[in-house]
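User: Can you write out an input/output pair for a complex, sequences first and structure second?

Assistant: Here is one pair. Inputs:
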Amino acid sequence: GDSVTQMEGPVTLSEEAFLTINCTYTATGYPSLFWYVQYPGEGLQLLLKATKADDKGSNKGFEATYRKETTSFHLEKGSVQVSDSAVYFCALGRAGGSYIPTFGRGTSLIVHP
Amino acid sequence: SQTIHQWPATLVQPVGSPLSLECTVEGTSNPNLYWYRQAAGRGLQLLFYSVGIGQISSEVPQNLSASRPQDRQFILSSKKLLLSDSGFYLCAWKFPGVVEAFFGQGTRLTVV
């Protein structure tokens, strides 16, 4: 079955540092890939998505590229802010009626001033 | 546009008491609905999902149950709460023809 593996956290950075959170997946065919963000005490918000190989999803300065050859979807941001502190989930989805979205375990990001 | 409402936001319940958490989706019909639990510092655990009224699939045998009495309403229940039921409960929906899922704001349940 489908699975998603993302790097263990927490990731601790200083403000304006470069961010990479690694995500790899195992799946057949061509699923869609997502990054969700969860701020403290809140639900998950869709941050960005990519629906086919070589697509780049981007939002709020974050970006991730769907790499079929390496089965990866790493999240990057050039300059993080304190307000980016949150838990980030990599996920895999399909449009099938009974498909259950598959999530990684989440990576906590802590950004210090 | 579609919105998802989940309540209450916070709940403190004694051990052995009943539980009812409600989730309602607006602006769509026949969504897939999901209940997840997130323990402190942990990932998401799928508890139940539903593809239609009265259709419930359970992923983890436990002290909880779910019901879908109406197309856009999903309820999570327990007859007697355990300490281990504490956690952050998230409702999510997904339209069958769309790839991404959308989440409610969550309910923080503390069993004391």
